[in-house]
Amino acid sequence: xxxxxxxxxxxxxxxxxxxxxxxxxxxxxxxxxxxxxxxxxxxxxxxxxxxxxxxxxxxxxxxxxxxxxxxxxxxxxxxxxxxxxxxxxxxxxxxxxxxxxxxxxxxxxxxxxxxxxxxxxxxxxxxxxxxxxxxxxxxxxxxxxxxxxxxxxxxxxxxxxxxxxxxxxxxxxxxxxxxxxxxxxxxxxxxxxxxxxxxxxxxxxxxxxxxxxxxxxxxxxxxxxxxxxxxxxxxxxxxxxxxxxxxxxxxxxxxxxxxxxxxxxxxxxxxxxxxxxxxxxxxxxxxxxxxxxxxxxxxxxxxxxxxxxxxxxxxxxxxxxxxxxxxxxxxxxxxxxxxxxxxxxxxxxxxxxx
Length: 354
Prior knowledge:
Blueprint (H helix, E strand, L loop, with lengths): L22 E2 H13 L8 E7 L12 H4 L6 E8 L22 H4 L3 H12 L4 H13 L6 E7 L17 E7 L4 E10 L2 E7 L3 E5 L3 E9 L8 E4 L19 E4 H12 E4 L5 E3 L8 H16 L21 E2 L7 E2 L2 H11 L6
Parallel strand pairs: 1-4, 3-7
Antiparallel strand pairs: 2-3, 4-5, 6-9, 6-12, 6-13, 7-8, 9-10, 10-11, 14-15
Helix pairs in contact: 1-7, 5-7
């Protein structure tokens, strides 16, 4: 299993680190995901036309064998239309503005959570190496020894099915260095859910769910210890199985034990994580210029977070002329809506300093 220690500085004490220098990995992942998703070139200025699962498409004919041979109970087809140039604006692409003005029956009754899943299933196609590269670009903008904060729930004791000595999850928090991160590459075999995202008039089809799918994540660890936490920023390409803590977040950030024993079996029938390739850096992605721009935007937003807050669930900035809701407990975390505050609460309550 990926791990191994390096000759890095001694463990860092939370009390001795300047709080303004520390990058919170969960929070910056929220911002990076927002900035990437809302301007993703392949789906920029597109509207959701149709969603198909157990039934065939109503508005197109899909003949690709990946789709026709897939289990109808474990497939999702998503059709998008790119709006004409004359109607395009600089507004971000969001799950809330993704549907057509006159929705097709298959999209009319989708819940906000289902719309979020469709949004990220499409945008995370072939997204693992993109997101790993994105995080690499972000840290390239910072000093090598930048301190980072890791916040997750305690791992499950898989022998007993509980977390430690109790079934109640406990917060895990520590500070380490950005240079302690590792890239972990492996394969997932027989992915359990197939996604086909089609964009018109581009006539582009993006299919996720091949028999043998390469995957990449980021591993973090305390100084001089093995990898103990995994960040999977493209997890929702696998559908709702890739939602984070308590089935809410848009990415997975959890102890390595949970990721290997519980998360990966939801993705596919088997995997090569135990013999994964572990490295320090990854080569450039096809859309490197876009990813560098996303990293730069995220860095500015993080540095300006005290003046312009962000939604701790989706990463959205305040709407024009509106103030964001604030957690009534710690008064340090903000939300763009009550729904997003509710979705975020299972994770936030572990760390809320009431």
